[in-house]
Recover the amino acids of this structure.
């Protein structure tokens, strides 16, 4: 409780000091606001609205929340308590890329789980306990440069492989933000996009993720035991797939082999992989020339070709949190607010700043999400069974075990306190 | 941008109709009806409108050709007035389907890229026109390479607005050539989208304001010719409607209202069928396979389609019988999602959205038939609880009574 009060005061001080820096989202007074307070057992408060940024700033100073959100939607009555009375005017297109939702190799290092049924412990993101098949876990999800790079790579792919070339989205309509934890948010503004229904949004989601693609419609089919494949001059997904296949085939053989065998990618057995490797040069010649599209590799029937293409689509498509983009009444973190599970700032970034942006060790002061950094140290006691290594601002801390007394810089202490894995002593 | 008046005469559903005939907007429907029936060719207009209704009630795929295109504006407007006057969703859907199909055939027959461009502009669709046609892909058949070319690309938002209701895998954005905000599509596919626009334009909601409808009818019926036309249509409809209306009261158990057990994807198709809306190929297959999987009699399954604009009992019967013989399995949830038939979001269905099982061990539903099973299981469990409660109460009251 004392730590919660401390963090709340800290957040208050932040909002007090940075009130004038808080960015104003477009159509500010038409947005619904929501927040999660510090008090336990209090759920999200929704259906709030603020006339202008000053009113919001004053509210944040008077009663700083743990998390602050605003709607992607615009309403004439944003504070009406039920959705039907809000007078919906449209919704920006929101995309959430969060490594919580997909596998990254670094999770095997830093995401810890304990099975609630049998007490088995491990790392990674299993669906079921390998010992008892239980599906209830206590989890400690961590953050590192590697998974944030994966998330950044996904948002970069999204913008440069889909939104700009395919959908012609103008850079000025893109609002990018580091979420303050394990990912990025992208808001695409535009009168036209705001009018899209959930079903129409689903079409865009399917396009950028590559989910639900029917390869037969793209050209894959079998006639009289001959398999006809896709063509790279067909604009859209066919072209994307063929370009990716070409890139794959140009990789060193050992890399191709391991990708094809990897269960997180293609998951082929070794016989199929050997056959693929034997034919890979012929296949590359065939698709580069593009004159014919008969795909003939021993051991590759239509089922294996589909499996292969699914593996390719997985690499080309973007990992996004689909329901966020489809739901027109979602709230997303307010830029410039603080994330209550890390103490990091939800940092807006311009497209030209994205490539160099490094959330855990950002050199540009204006873009640095770690706002509580200080050389002053704090003493804490670890209250979680095990904690992975934490690397922030180039310095590593941990791993730790329960009961350990540590003395860490202020920003690390805030991070651990927000994560609720340590307490002050 | 102004378009040639001739185009509006041929396609009276174009928004420019108001520009060329500004006085139309000033007239009340009754004045308009009165004007039509005072024209020298009013008999031809009236006959044409009647023919459209007859064709729609007889499940024709098109309206027999009319040579006099000069009538088309009056025909279109009178048709819309009658749709409002009849105030019947089934009729509206049938007319919208038929009239829009007819518009498609007409545009295809006219085969004019410049007209098609003008139509798109008038509908405020953002299209690019390419002359000569632009290549957006190719097809290889054995050793022959065929270029995929088109004169048109359409802004992706306009595309989605028109195509997303079609629920056709070929029209999924991911299966199309999308570049720089535009979707390349061949002329006939663009015409198909415009057909959808026409269909939506005719689909007006049934009015709930019966007072205003009755007052309109009182006025309109003062014009004898309109009253006669209305009554003729009404008589034909009354004779035919039994073939179109179905009541979905299948009850294999005799205990439960089976509709309560159906997942939203099935309810949506049944709702559309009931309203006489056209069903796309996947919807037809899925509903047949689903109902057959639950052992519904063939004739009852056939009845579901009786409201559809293109219903043919013999053909449907043959197809349903064939499906029964083949024992096809209905689509699973992932397939329904991929072809746009999953309705869990639209219906906010708890079981579909959250899954089943204990609070912390929820499992996702994977098949619509399992939805029925789960609901049946829950109903049975609830019934058991109620029975036990009643039994307990009875025993207690018996104890108290001595």
């Amino acid at each position: 409780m004392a730590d919660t009060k401390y963090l709340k005061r800290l957040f208050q001080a932040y909002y007090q000091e940075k009130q004038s820096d808080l960015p104003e989202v477009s159509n500010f007074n038409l947005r619904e606001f929501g927040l999660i307070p510090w008090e336990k057992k209090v759920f999200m408060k929704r259906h709030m609205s603020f006339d202008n940024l000053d009113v919001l700033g004053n509210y944040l100073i008077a009663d700083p929340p743990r998390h602050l959100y605003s709607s992607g939607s615009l309403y004439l009555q944003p504070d009406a308590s039920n959705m039907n009375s809000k007078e919906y005017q449209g919704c920006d297109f929101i995309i959430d890329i969060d490594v919580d939702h997909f596998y990254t190799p670094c999770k095997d290092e830093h995401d810890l789980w304990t099975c609630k049924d049998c007490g088995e412990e491990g790392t990674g993101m299993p669906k079921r306990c390998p010992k008892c098949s239980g599906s209830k876990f206590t989890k400690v999800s961590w953050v590192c440069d590697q998974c944030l790079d994966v998330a950044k790579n996904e948002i970069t792919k999204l913008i440069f492989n889909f939104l700009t070339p395919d959908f012609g989205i103008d850079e000025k309509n893109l609002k990018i933000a580091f979420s303050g934890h394990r990912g990025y948010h992208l808001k695409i503004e535009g009168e036209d996009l705001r009018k899209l229904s959930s079903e129409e949004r689903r079409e865009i989601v399917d396009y950028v993720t590559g989910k639900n693609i029917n390869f037969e419609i793209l050209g894959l089919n079998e006639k009289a035991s001959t398999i006809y494949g896709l063509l790279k001059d067909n604009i859209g997904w066919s072209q994307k797939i063929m370009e990716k296949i070409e890139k794959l085939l140009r990789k060193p053989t050992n890399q191709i082999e391991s990708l094809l065998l990897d269960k997180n990618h293609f998951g082929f057995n070794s016989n199929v992989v050997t056959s693929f490797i034997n034919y890979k040069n012929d296949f590359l010649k065939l698709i580069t020339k593009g004159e014919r599209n008969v795909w003939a590799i021993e051991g590759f029937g239509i089922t294996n070709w589909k499996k292969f293409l699914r593996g390719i689509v997985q690499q080309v498509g973007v990992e996004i949190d689909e329901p966020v983009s489809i739901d027109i009444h979602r709230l997303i973190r307010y830029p410039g607010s603080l994330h209550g599970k890390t103490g990091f700032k939800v940092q807006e970034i311009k497209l030209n700043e994205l490539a160099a942006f490094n959330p855990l060790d950002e050199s540009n002061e204006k873009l640095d999400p770690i706002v509580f950094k200080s050389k002053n140290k704090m003493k804490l006691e670890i209250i979680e069974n095990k904690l992975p290594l934490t690397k922030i601002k180039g310095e590593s801390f941990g791993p730790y075990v329960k009961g350990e007394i540590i003395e860490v810089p202020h920003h690390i202490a805030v991070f651990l306190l927000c994560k609720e894995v340590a307490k002050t002593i | 941008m102004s378009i040639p008046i001739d185009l509006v005469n041929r396609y009276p559903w174009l928004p420019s109709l108001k520009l060329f005939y500004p006085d139309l907007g000033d007239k009340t429907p009754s004045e308009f009806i009165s004007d039509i029936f005072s024209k020298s060719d009013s008999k031809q207009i009236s006959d044409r409108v009647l023919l459209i209704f007859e064709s729609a009630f007889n499940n024709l795929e098109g309206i027999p050709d009319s040579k006099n295109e000069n009538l088309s504006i009056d025909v279109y407007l009178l048709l819309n007035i009658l749709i409002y006057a009849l105030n019947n969703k089934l009729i509206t859907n049938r007319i919208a389907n038929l009239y829009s199909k007819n518009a498609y055939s007409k545009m295809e027959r006219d085969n004019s890229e410049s007209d098609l461009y003008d139509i798109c502009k008038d509908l405020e669709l953002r299209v690019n026109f390419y002359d000569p046609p632009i290549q957006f892909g190719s097809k290889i058949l054995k050793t022959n390479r065929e270029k995929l070319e088109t004169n048109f690309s359409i802004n992706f938002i306009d595309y989605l607005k028109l195509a997303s209701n079609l629920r056709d895998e070929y029209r999924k954005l991911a299966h199309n050539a999308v570049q720089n905000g535009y979707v390349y599509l061949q002329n006939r596919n663009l015409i198909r989208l415009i057909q959808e626009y026409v269909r939506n334009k005719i689909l007006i909601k049934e009015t709930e304001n019966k007072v205003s409808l009755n007052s309109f009818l009182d006025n309109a019926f003062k014009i004898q010719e309109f009253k006669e036309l209305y009554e003729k249509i009404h008589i034909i409809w009354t004779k035919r409607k039994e073939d179109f209306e179905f009541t979905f009261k299948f009850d294999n158990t005799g205990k439960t209202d089976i509709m309560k057990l159906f997942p939203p994807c099935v309810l949506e198709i049944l709702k559309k069928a009931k309203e006489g809306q056209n069903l796309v190929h996947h919807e037809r297959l899925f509903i047949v396979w689903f109902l057959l999987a639950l052992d519904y009699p063939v004739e009852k399954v056939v009845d579901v389609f009786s409201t559809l604009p293109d219903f043919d009992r013999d053909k449907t019967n043959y197809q349903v019988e064939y499906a029964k013989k083949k024992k096809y399995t209905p689509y699973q949830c992932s397939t329904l999602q991929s072809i746009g038939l999953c309705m869990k979001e639209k219906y906010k269905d708890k079981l579909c959205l959250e899954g089943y099982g204990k609070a912390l061990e929820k499992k996702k539903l994977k098949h619509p038939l399992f939805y029925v099973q789960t609901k049946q299981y829950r109903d049975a469990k609830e019934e058991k609880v109620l029975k036990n409660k009643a039994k307990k109460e009875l025993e207690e009251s018996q104890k108290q009574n001595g």
In short: Chain A touches chain B at residues 135-136, 165-169, 192-193, 195-200, 202-204, 206-207, 210-214, 217-219, 228, 231, 233-238, 291-293, 326-327 (CB under 8 Å).
